[in-house]
Design a protein that fits this description.
- The protein is α+β, with helices and mostly antiparallel strands.
- Helix 2 runs antiparallel to helix 3.
- 49% of the residues lie in helices and 21% in strands.
- The chain has 8 helices and 7 strands; from the N terminus they run H-H-H-E-H-H-E-E-E-H-H-E-H-E-E.
- The chain has a 7-stranded mixed β-sheet with strand order 1-2-3-4-5-7-6, sandwiched between helices.
């Protein structure tokens, strides 16, 4: 009975690993699946299953260590509302943006008091951020959209922790989300230290 449940768990983790696009999540889920299959093989005395998944587990661990040791380079790149790259980004990720920020309108980033930038991750555009900065120092977020394969919290930690001084130099003292209907992004905000105030999610900078 135990072996049977080990087999079910292994299959579940392997299936889940093939459903994600983030390489880190893939490696963790795949490694878990292999580990369960190692136990499954050991309980049944199925040496080929044990050996094959033991090797696959070792490969996953190797890549996990490599991922955690690799130091990515993050940077900010300011953009203007009429920059072609901004338009192309919005057009390409239109569906994802609507899912996470259904109230976003491109005209919002044309505000004279807007701060607009991309977050680069090893020179790839990982995130688009735009907010209007009020005289009181509140950054009213229009969009903070991260490309799916980069949704591992590293962009958020870079932006809200490592670049905290950059935001403060722009006169920002508080990040404010006035509307946030997407549950996944709310989960991200909680991890980043945002708290709910009325209908808003806020974080002091």
């Amino acid at each position: 009975m135990l072996a049977e449940w080990m087999g079910y768990a292994a299959s579940l983790f392997l299936i889940l690993s093939l459903s994600v696009t983030n390489s880190l999540r893939f490696r963790w889920l795949n490694a878990a699946g292999c580990a369960f299959f190692v136990v499954y093989g050991a309980l049944l005395g199925a040496i080929p299953v044990l050996l094959t998944n033991g090797i696959l587990l070792a490969i996953n661990i190797y890549y996990l260590v490599s991922i955690y040791r690799y130091s990515e380079k993050f940077d900010l790149l300011a953009f203007k509302a009429d920059d072609q790259i901004a338009q192309k980004f919005i057009d390409y990720y239109e569906k994802g943006i609507k899912d996470y920020f259904p109230h976003f309108k491109q005209v919002q980033i044309t505000d004279d008091n807007c701060i607009n930038f991309f977050v680069l991750r090893d020179m790839a555009i990982a995130n688009m951020f735009s907010a209007t900065v009020t005289p009181a120092g509140e950054a009213l977020v229009h969009i903070n959209f991260t490309v799916e394969k980069f949704r591992d919290y590293k962009v958020g930690r870079f932006l809200f922790k490592q670049e905290k001084q950059y935001l403060q130099d722009k006169g920002i003292r508080k990040i404010v989300y006035r509307q946030m209907p997407n549950a996944k992004h709310i989960g991200f905000l909680k991890v980043m230290g945002f708290v709910k105030e009325g209908d808003c999610w806020v974080k002091l900078i």
